[in-house]
Amino acid sequence: MALARSRNMPERYSSPMTSGPDLPTTSWAVLGMLSHAEELSGYDLKKWADWSLQFFYWSPSFSQIYAELKRLEKHGYVTSRAVLSEDGVRGKRMYAITASGREAVAHWVNHSPVEAPVLKHSVMLRTWLGHLAEPDRLREILTEHIDYAERMRRRAQADAEGADTNPDWAYPSAVLRWCVRHYEAEQEFARDLLADLGKLEKRGGSRRKKG
């Protein structure tokens, strides 16, 4: 069986963006979040990412967020300032996008290449290796995945409904509605796969290979 030629980089549908620094997509994600407000703290960015980005792209740690902020500040795309609490002891650092940062992220949105999404689906990998799996356990794995997809669908639905009340979040709410449909499809595909596994079992195709 012939295998497709492997690539180290994801497939691109168009030529790469040539203007500005070659930042990772996670940097643009953080910079883009900052474009929605005058100032945000690292905690705010983490909360916003968990509210929206995690459904389709990224659920960052605090260390990742602060690493990206440091990188963006180095390029002059972000400024920061320390803000003390009322007691004058505790404090936090607030971050704001600069004019050049807004221009750069807008350029990325409009002119970066359209890359093929990278799918890393561990449940499908385990099913692909189903000849090594116990049939009952494989069905359990897929059932757990269906339950997970339903939980994510409900959360995305709730967040989309909350965003619909704010006109400033029109585009994020549209993406959240896409996420709802995505997790609905995940459940449907997994159920279809369970049906396929049932057919394999009837034919004896699910028997494990022995060493």
Explain what this protein looks like in three dimensions:
The protein has 211 residues and is mainly alpha-helical. The chain folds into two domains: 25-111, Orthogonal Bundle (Arc Repressor Mutant, subunit A); 122-209. Helices cover 55% and strands 8% of the residues. It has helices at 25-34, 42-51, 62-74, 99-111, 122-128, 135-163, 170-203; strands at 40-41, 78-84, 91-97. Strands 1-3-2 form a three-stranded antiparallel β-sheet. Strand 2 and strand 3 form a beta hairpin. Helix 2 packs across helix 3 (62-74) and helix 6 runs antiparallel to helix 7 (170-203). The longest helix has 34 residues, at 170-203. The chain is elongated. It starts with 24 loop residues before the first helix and ends in an 8-residue tail after the last helix. Residues 1-7 and 12-18 have low confidence and may be disordered. InterPro entries: Tscrpt_reg_PadR_N, WH-like_DNA-bd_sf, WH_DNA-bd_sf. Pfam families: PadR.
Q: Briefly, what is this?
A:
This protein has 211 residues and is mainly alpha-helical.
Topology overview:
Blueprint: H1 25-34, E1 40-41, H2 42-51, H3 62-74, E2 78-84, E3 91-97, H4 99-111, H5 122-128, H6 135-163, H7 170-203
Antiparallel strand pairs: 1-3, 2-3
Descriptive keywords:
single chain; PadR family transcriptional regulator; mainly alpha; WH_DNA-bd_sf; Arc Repressor Mutant, subunit A; 2 domains; 7 helices; 211 residues; Tscrpt_reg_PadR_N; three-stranded antiparallel beta sheet; WH-like_DNA-bd_sf; disordered N terminus
